[in-house]
Amino acid sequence: MKKETKIIAGLLAGAALGAAIALILSSDKDGEMKEKVSDWFCDLLDSSKEKLVDAAGHVKDTIAKVRA
């Protein structure tokens, strides 16, 4: 597959995904789906922060061992 074809395919896939998400969120009358998506995203961010803190601690420990 040529580079241009991959780029176009990626753009089309992204546009389709965005349209599907917009359709799902806009058709939700009582906001329940929006709350579920928002909660899921917040949980994802929290877990990412925790993993980042753990990784930073591991890097600091490794640097301290190398310097010692």
TrEMBL record:
<protein>
    <submittedName>
        <fullName>YtxH-like protein</fullName>
    </submittedName>
</protein>
